[in-house]
Amino acid sequence: MKKNRSHCPVNFALEIFGDKWTLLIIRDLILFNKKTYGELKNSPEGIATNILANRLSLLEKEGIVVKSKDPNNSKVNIYDLTPKGIDLIPVLLEMSIWGAHHDPNTAAPPAMVKKIETERAAVIAQIKAAIKDPSKNIFKNK
Predict the structure, then answer these.
(1) Whole-model pTM?
(2) Among candidate residues 41, 64, 82, the one where a domain is terminated
(3) Which of 129, 34, 101, 142 lies closest to 112 in space, CA to CA?
(4) Domain contains 102
(5) CB atoms within 10 A of CB 30
(6) What's the domain range around 129?
(7) Domain count along the chain
């Protein structure tokens, strides 16, 4: 078990998410239903393969994702969110709202930002449904 700098809840979160890649991986798992290393590697931010492998290992160790073999191809790993990972949906949505409001070049559609702000519980429920059934995804796949 690793030793945290302190037991402050913000510090606890930063010990896991305090880099520029981990939350982007979680974003792709939550919002875009990406499941495999290859899908995650093809995200627009261009994460290096060694960093992706390291962050997926960290997320697995922290109990945020669980890794399993693709039943159709045993050479491919599937990454699924655990309940602990699914609990990050509201955090990700709040960060999305903040980013959309403060980035003058945001890619977030204004209607989606408004929906997250005004119908948060419904959006969270829709995201949870899409995690179980990707055909219900309300976000565009990237």
Answers:
(1) 0.87
(2) 82
(3) 101
(4) yes
(5) 23
(6) 88-136
(7) 2
